[in-house]
Design brief:
The protein has helices at 29-44, 47-54, 57-60, 155-159, 166-176, 185-189, 207-217, 219-232, 238-244, 252-265; strands spanning 2-4, 7-9, 69-76, 82-92, 95-106, 114-120, 123-127, 143-147. The protein is of the alpha+beta class. Strand 4 and strand 5 (95-106) form a beta hairpin.
Length: 268
Amino acid sequence: MKNFKAFKDTKIRDIPRFYVIVGRNGSAKTTLFNIFSFLKDALSTDVNIVFNKLGSFNEVISRGCTGNIKFRAKNTYKNNPVVTYFLSISQKDGKAVIDKKNLKYRRCRKGQPWEFLNFNNGQGSAVINKQILDSTEEKDLQHEDQSLKSSDILAIKGLAQFKRFPAIIALSELIDNWHVSNIHVNEAHNIQQAYYAEHLSTLSGSLSKIIDYLYSNHKEKLNEIIEVLQQRIKGIPKAIACHLKLDNSNTSASFSALFSGIQKLCPI
């Protein structure tokens, strides 16, 4: 990522499926989360709407920088194919414009990548091959020219709706399935009980409902989490820890209430 607030030129490598970031106030944790949220939100709207949520393009671009805001995401799939997505955003006449985006595919960790998507200012092309085999060569790729209705729309947003762009669908699903939660202690205490949740909300307000979900559907996994908590957080009283051992007499509602109390004792 380049020129996105505090991240003038930053790389994060080998991100696992579950990634926890801990840091002091002012260490740019929220800014990092905003990057993931930015790309995900841009899939459902456009980049100008997302910039407005963050203030404006001028407030997001790193101080003292006059270039573009850039993202490059690389993902490795099974059998070692590598997919790289590049996005460059500039400002024109007071509005954000996606002046370049491309999607490259490489079947192994080495070798020259193939270009599956290439758009500049709303104009470009995408590969429509339904399947890429080991025997497929770059000359076999079938490209289709496309025009977006606006230069502030991600090409993968529209093209991912069509089955003839399988590589773009895969990238869109990857971004759309990101679940980012920026947990603040004060927000975590404001427990919301009115909805069902399998994933943490962006401000962790659904934390007790996640526990409720685990209690009802994955008790063994929840017991493993509790055992780790007992080992790592000394502030959990032994009496509460004993009660947390799930048995048939405990109800989902009482467990959620008990967990809420633990949050206040041990906000970490």
